[in-house]
Backbone:
């Protein structure tokens, strides 16, 4: 019985490993999504909807926590670091809202 369980678990592990290798492009882009989403949503909330900082943190909050947050009111931008990736969203105008800057930072 123990042998059957170990064989089944080994097969499941190999299938999971194959699946991860097959989908690596999608899996490797996940960490960037966290900081991108938080920075853009916070920027839109704060500069477009003009809500308070606390309300915007609640609005942009996710299950995966962020490690750094910087609100630059002078340059109307929001920089967020989460899961090792950093992204910045900059306010364009009321009509266009905020957009992510393509800085290529990690």
Residues:
């Amino acid at each position: 019985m123990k042998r059957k369980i170990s064989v089944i678990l080994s097969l499941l592990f190999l299938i999971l490993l194959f699946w991860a290798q097959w989908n690596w492009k999608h899996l490797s882009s996940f960490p960037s999504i966290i900081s991108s989403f938080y920075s853009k949503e916070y920027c839109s909330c704060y500069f477009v909807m003009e809500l308070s900082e606390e309300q915007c943190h609640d609005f942009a909050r996710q299950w995966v926590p962020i490690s750094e947050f910087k609100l630059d009111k002078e340059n109307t931008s929001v920089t967020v670091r989460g899961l090792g990736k950093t992204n910045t969203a900059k306010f364009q105008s009321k009509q266009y809202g905020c957009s992510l800057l393509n800085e290529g930072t990690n």
In short: The chain has a mean pLDDT of 89. The beta strands are 68-72, 77-82, 85-93, 97-101. The radius of gyration is 19 Å. The first helix runs from residue 2 to 22.
